Each structure stands twice: as structure tokens, then as C-alpha cells.
Amino acid sequence: MIRFANWLGKNADAFIALVLAITVAVLGLGVNLPDENEITNSAILAVVGLLATAVLRDRGRRIPVEAEVRDTLRASSSTLDDLRGKLAHIEQFEDVLAGTKRALDETAVVRVISGGQVGQVLEEARRDTDRWFFKGGTGTYIRAKTLPECVAAARRERRTLLFRMEILDPTDVEVCEAYARHRRSVSDAPDATGEKWTLERTRKEAYATLLAACWHKQRFAMLDIDIGLARTMTTLRYDLAASRLVVTRDDPRGEALVVDSNKFYYSWMSAELQTSLDQARRVPVEQARLAPLDDEPTVEEVRKLFEVIGIELAPSYTDRDVIEIIRKALRAKDPYE
Q1: Which of 8, 84, 120, 157 falls 20 to 30 Å from 222 in CA-CA distance?
Q2: Is 337 a member of any domain?
Q3: Does residue 335 lie in a domain region?
Q4: Please, what's the largest Cα pairwise distance for the chain?
Q5: In this predicted structure, what is the pLDDT of residue 96?
Q6: Could you list the residue range(s) of the whole structural domain that residue 264 is in?
Q7: Which of 54, 80, 107 is the last residue of a domain?
Q8: Which residue, 92, 107, 122, sits at the end of a domain?
């Protein structure tokens, strides 16, 4: 009953209109009632009144709803404005996060590898490279592995090879003595090649690297090689290939540094090595064609070669010394073995 009373209170106008409609319908069926016209007119007026009441009631209900909708829209607009501001802060945060990630990536610009991994890393660097920059002492490993293997790969693939080297000047006795003294201070025992470091060994190793470069140049025309002779020594060796830079020391068992080519430090070191080479004493390797070398160069051929490229052999060098330089040039021992 209570539920019906509540329903009737909410729908009284519709209920009354329904009752009046039924009454009019009954009259239409021919039921005789006194003053039927008056009753019908009153019913019509009542229905019109109820319709007007319903319209007013509907408007009365709609006005607060519209106000509520407007308030909701205003609140939504304010919320969207706040959200837009928060999105802007999120974008700024994402930019900061991306910058931080880049900075962290660049802090890992250098990888450290053990001495036992150096040979493998250098082998991977030689595999597909079309260039090699070297700066170091006398270039023993360059003669033993890097230069012959890079030339062999370039010849096999019929492509050019760019080679840049900066080694000690063998005619500068002081810098060669300083280098030998430094190597002995690290270890006075023979190295992996079976020899101790002395002034004469240092000079012969450097001479041998020059001879090896000219020998390979005469046998592979697409080898573009440039050599500079330094009058200052370095305790580090830099090997820069197309894919990476490897920095080693004079101890094959020591740790080494590796910089991949997509890191900023790689381009820095590439520019540094080229600048350093430009300041070194240049060796006119192109003149080596004036002193042809056999597959097994003779002493006379080697002496002639150093004469035409303007690098004087030590006056005290005997034929035996020149033969030793030839051996070192073409059959160098790998210091990493």
C-alpha cells in the first residue's frame, strides 16, 4: 500500500488523465449520464490542465538537471585543464627520463675486457673493417696479425683498405731508448716473442714495421697506407677499426678498453689519432715503388728501400742486422700468443 501511495504521488497527473480518458471512453460507448456535454467539456479541460501541469512539472525537473549538467561540464572542463597540465608535466618528465637514459648509455662508453679477450676482440674488429688507425710503440702486433690479415680480407673482397700508423721514429735514439727503458721497468724478462727490450730491439722492431708496410703496399695496390714517426713515446696502444676502438698497454695479460663505434668517444679518438698522425714525421711510402722488393727481400733491396723513403738505417748495421729486420717484418711473432 505504501509503495502504491508513493507511486501515485509521483504519477498522479498521469493517473488522473488515465481515469478521465476511461470516463470519456465510457461516454463514447453510449452510457447515459446527465449533462454529458458538460462532463465531456470538463474532462477535456481537466486533461488539458493535467498536460499543462505535466509540462510544467517536466520543466521544473529539467531545470535542475540542466544546471547539474552545466556544473558537471564545468567540473569536467576544469578536470581536463588539470589533466592537460599534468600531461605536460608527464611529457617533461619523459624528456628528462630520455635524457637521463642517454646520459647513462654514454657513461657506459667504455667496456673493460681481460687480457685473454684482447686477441679475440681484435680479430672481430679485423673481420669486416675497411680502415685501421694505429698509434703505439713499434707495431709488433700490426706486423704479425693486423696488417697481413686486413690486406688478405681486402684482397679477397676486392675493396680498398685505409691504413694509418704512428710508431716510434727508429732514427731517434733517445725516444727508442726511453721506450726500451720503460718496457724493462715493467718487466725485465723476455716477452712472448722470447726477446728482452733493448735499444737495438726497439729500433729494429720499428724498422721492421716500415719494411712490412712497404712490402704489403707493393703487393696490394688498393692499400692506402700512411705512416708517421713519433718523437715521443706512449704507454698505450690504440687500434681503431670501423666497428670499435681497442686501447691496450704493453702487457698482453693486462686489461684493455673497448669503445664501440656508436659511442661519442670513438669519434673523438678518431679525430685525435688523425691529428696526432698529422704532427708526426711522415714516411713517403709512395716512394717505395722505386725500390722493388721480392717475396723474400734481399739485404740490398732493403737498404735501397730505406734510402729512397728517406729513413736511414743505423750506420753500424751489418747484413746480419738487416736480415733480422727482414725476419721481423715478414715473420713477426704474435705477442698475445
Answers
A1: 120
A2: no
A3: no
A4: 156
A5: 61
A6: 111-330
A7: 107
A8: 107
Q: Answer yes or no: do 73 and 49 share one domain.
A: yes
Residues 195 and 300 in one domain: yes
Measured distance CA(203)–CA(314) in Å, rounded: 9
pLDDT in tens, 263-294: 989 999 999 999 999 999 999 999 999 999 99
Burial category of 79 from C-beta neighbours within 10 Å (exposed 0-12, middle 13-18, buried 19 and up): exposed
Q: Cα–Cα distance between 320 and 326 in angstroms, integer?
A: 10
Contact present, 152 and 250 (Cβ < 8 Å): no
Nearest one of 195, 168, 166, 165 to 179, comparing CA atoms: 168
More confident: 266 or 98:
266
Q: Which amino acid is at 331?
A: R
Distance CA 258, CA 244 (A): 7
* H or E element, residue 89: helix 36-107
Question: Which run of H or E residues covers position 164?
Answer: strand 161-168
* pTM, to two decimals: 0.69
Tell me, yes or no, whether 165 lies in a domain: yes
Which amino acid is it at 247? V
Cell of 173: 735514439
Q: Are 304 and 291 in contact (CB under 8 A)?
A: yes
